[in-house]
Amino acid sequence: MSNERAPTDWNAPAMQKRIRRRYARERRFRFFGLAAVTLSAAFLAFLLVTMVANGWRGFTRTDVALVIDFPATGIEVERAQLKTPAADLALAGAGLENLVKGAAATAFGDESVISDSGWLRVREAIKADPTILDRKLTIDLPASTAIDQAVQGDGNAEAKAAAAKLEQAGVLSRHFNADFLHKSDSTDPVAVGIWGALKGSLLTMAITFLIAFPVGVLSAIYLEEYAPRNRWTDLIEVSINNLAAVPSIIFGLLGLAVFLGSWSLFGYQFGPLLPRSAALVGGLTLALMIMPVIVIASRNAIKAVPPSIRDAALGIGASPIQVVFHHVLPLAMPGILTGTIIGMARALGETAPLLLIGMRAFIVTPPGGFTDPATVLPVQIFLWSDEVSRGFVEKTSAAIIVLLVFLLAMNGLAIYLRNKFETRW
Amino acid sequence: MNGFALVFLIAGLGLIGWLTARARANRFDRGGAKRLHSLPGQHGMYVAMWTVLPALLFVAGWNAISPGLVKEAVLEHPAAAQLPTFAFERNALLAEAKRVAHEEGATAFDPVAEQLVAPTRAAQSRYGWMGAGVAILLAFAGAAFAFTRVRPSFQARTQAERGVMVLLLIASLIAILTTLGIFLSLLWESLRFFQQVPITDFLFGTHWSPQVIDAADPGKSLGAVPLFWGTFFIGAVIAMIVAIPFGLMSAIYLTQYAAPRVRRWMKPTLEMLAGVPTVVYGYFAALTVAPAVRDLAVSFGYTYASSESALAAGLVMGVMIIPFVSSMADDSIAAVPTAMRDGSLAMGATTSETISKVLIPAALPGVVAGVLLAVSRAIGETMIVVMAASGAANITLNPFESATTVTKQIVDLLTGESEFDSPKTLAAFALGLTLFVITLLLNIVALRVVKKYREAYE
User: Fold this and answer.
1) Considering CB atoms only, which of A40, A215, A245 is closest to B273?
2) What are phi and psi of A239, to 5 degrees?
3) What is the ipTM of this complex?
4) With CB atoms counted within 10 Å of each terminal CB, which end of chain A scores lower, N or C?
5) Which pLDDT score is estimated for A274?
């Protein structure tokens, strides 16, 4: 070869420059990768920090100690009524609300330092012990949102001045807000709680689990173990894979049309099948939504059980049903449960389909059963996020913290199960 | 009788049937050379099945038809003659009577409805007890029939296992039924919508204002093009501008550069982004990101910036989507044979050159499929846009302006108080159908791409 190439001169300036450039590009690329990971994690951290920073205040409450001299106010209530269900009505009729506001106005010169629903606490105290109507009572009442925020360093100058005055008088105190955990929705941000929504979530989850788990596991068993390979099985399989990718809001439309719409069949008019806003409908809708998740996870778990176990059981005379229910299913159970918990976590955080089936109602009493009007935690968060009142911001964030704690616990349990029962065959 | 109580009662009868049949089969003579075909438990199963299944089937059917029977009975009551003939008011009054009949201590507003409460309650209890009676009778009849067949020679196992197989088949058919139910209910309501609004107006109209619908020509204000554009703009453009680089670079870094320890911690951390409920993202977008975006726009000298901009919703949605892109990219990069990577490195290429010239081209189908799935996820996402995007339908290229999406409009259309038959409500189902079809197509295409890609290397 006449034009044989000269060996590369690695030390030539041009080559050195090229290598430096390539290495610089390598470092840049690596840096971009690291930046992408770090920034993504930073997003998550920022989100969590924002929620916690806003939310932890939702768990605390500022109280104002108020002295009420009941005999002096001359409130007239029949003592006998206070032990009956009519007590609320009687106390409201006797003007308790105005009485408490009046006491606050006299004590602090401004009745709005006490939250609008503060008098309810006096009512509960009277119901618990009617004798306080005969004496002077000092009671801690929740402060209004403005005062509460002024105490924490927020709010306008006027509220701050008022809070400083109360502070000087020594009537302010801060407490853990236990009411937030066992009260329900209200129009007053000081009085709201998440128990109603939490109970609604639990009822909805119960229905979701009771339907999605058996159906999902049974259909996974059928598809993985017994189904003949034909067009029908393919159709079922394709349906399940597609269902897993259908946007959740579409399931809301399905629930609305099938469970709550009125439809006619063979000229016969059906009313709404199920009551609106109920945990039952929400649970059914979410069950249809997470069923494919459970089917897919269960199929993978069943597939992972080695064929030798099936062969051994068949070899000693077990029937195909016995093989699956006595041997394969117990071995696949950890995997199935992991998938189920992940699916349930998804259902717990889901909001959109539930909005469509009417679970956005203002619910003051926690649901007593599956067919009572209910709301769930994510929907409660959504409803509070729409409230203009300033105090709802911290309540919304506090509710988000509760929801995230539940989700983290469920995901943690799933990871624990996976690690504990992971089997290498 | 209460439905739950009835189901519990039937289940209880089934349990009793199971126990007694098993006890009886346990006493079969096992002596001698005779071998029994079935285990005692299988006899029990057989009896339990015959006890529970016919009764439950009857209960399900009865629940579907008994409201109609109750209605007929109420209509025969003399007080029903006062009901108005117009179907809508008539049904409203009947529904009111039904509600009062159910609730303890409730009262009806309308005097006619008040009069119908007693007959409704009577008819409900009559048909309720009738149904419960027949169901329990069926349970006993089934149990008795099955119990007489429990003999040593009876092949209970075959029968019981056939029953289990049928149960399994039914469970797997529910998936098809759900798909069919979604498709048919969307199609049905959409057809009713398209009877009132021409389909061309809906698909190609550029004006969307469902609040004021002209009764004479509803199609004029129900043109969905601005929604489709907004959905595409927020979900497929802005969100992907965030999600693709971040997702892809994270996957590359975690698979190629990161130490195993870092990878073990960072991967689940990123996956947590996908586990945060969308309502939380929506709240975050509305509370923190949207005001920041507006301030940014104002600092750019854009004074009419909306606080419900497309950018705020798209950015947060992009962050939510990062783990989808990164885990799909992760899988497809890991599936590229190591020999190809090692070959490139042995030739003297740097790691970044290997990645961009060898690994990414080889993994491209998987990455593309991941992006398609992410887009389908983004355009179906609801809560972020409900909370952070605006309701105003604009066709705009400016990310600081407001834009609305299909999912946000579905929620807006269906959460107001409106009757079920108006074009406004039905439009939500037409939007739902469009969304369903588009996401389905995206998923099918994505799965195709993945399948093709897998064939190339395995």
Assistant:
1) A40
2) -60, -45
3) 0.87
4) N
5) 73
Which amino acid appears at position A103 of this protein?
A
User: Strand runs (DSSP E) across B184-252, as ranges?
Assistant: none
Q: At what angle do helices B406-415 and B360-380 cross, to 10 degrees?
A: 20
- Residue B436 is predicted with a pLDDT of 93
Tell me what pLDDT residue A187 has: 79
Nearest chain A residue to B163, by CA: A321
- Residues from chain B contacting residue A292 (CB–CB below 8 Å): 175
Q: What residue of A is the nearest CA neighbor of B169?
A: A222
Which residue in A22, A216, A355 is closest to B411 by CB distance?
Answer: A355
Looking up tokens 């951290």, which residue turns up? Answer: A45
Q: Name residue, tokens 């750019």.
A: B300
Q: Does residue B122 have a pLDDT over 80?
A: yes
* pLDDT tens per residue across span A67-77: 877 777 777 77
A116 pLDDT higher than 60: yes
Q: Is the pLDDT of residue B342 over 90?
A: yes
Share of chain A above pLDDT 70, in %: 96
Buried b (16+ CB within 10 A) or exposed e, A268-289: eeebebbbebbbbbbbbbbbbb
Q: Which of A37-41, A49-53, B77-81 has the lowest mean pLDDT?
A: B77-81
Distance of CA B303 to CAs A396, B230, B297, B385, Å?
31, 21, 7, 23
Residue, of B354 and A90, whose pLDDT is higher? B354
What gap in Å lies between CA A104 and CA A141, rounded to an integer? Answer: 10
Q: Which residue has the higher pLDDT, A271 or A336?
A: A336
CATH code linked to domain A195-424: 1.10.3720.10
**Set of chain B residues whose Cβ sits within 8 Å of the Cβ of A31:** none
Ramachandran category for residue A170: left, alpha or beta (phi over 0 → left; psi -120 to 50 → alpha): left
Residues 246-305 of A with CB under 8 A from B: 246-251, 253-254, 256-258, 261-262, 268-271, 273, 288, 291-292, 295
Count the helices and strands in chain B (H runs, E runs): 18, 0
The mean pLDDT value for A117-128 works out to 78
Q: Are B300 and B391 in contact (CB under 8 A)?
A: no
pLDDT at A35 (0 to 100): 95
- For testing contact with chain A, the best of B7, B188, B280 (most A CBs within 10 A): B280
Residues of chain A with CATH 1.10.3720.10: 195-424
**Do A404 and B276 count as a contact with CB atoms less than 8 A apart?**
yes
B110 touches B94 (CB < 8 A): no
| Helix, strand or coil, per DSSP, at residue B38 | coil
Identify the helix (H) or strand (E) that includes residue A65: strand A60-69
Work out the pLDDT band at B31, boundaries 50, 70, 90: low
B369 close to B328: Cβ distance less than 8 angstroms: yes
Residue B45: other Cβ atoms inside 10 A: 25
Per the prediction, chain A carries an average pLDDT of: 84
pLDDT tens digit sequence for A215-252: 999 999 999 988 888 888 888 888 888 888 899 999 99
Mean pLDDT confidence for A339-343:
92
Q: Give residue B301's region: left, alpha or beta (phi > 0; psi -120 to 50).
A: left
The whole-model pTM stands at 0.85
- The single residue listed with the structure tokens 């995901």 is A411
- pLDDT score, position B232: 93
d(CA A109, CA A349): 46
d(CA B269, CA A243): 27
Contact B275 A221 (CB under 8 A): no
Could you tell me if B143 and B51 are in contact, meaning their C-beta atoms sit under 8 angstroms apart? yes
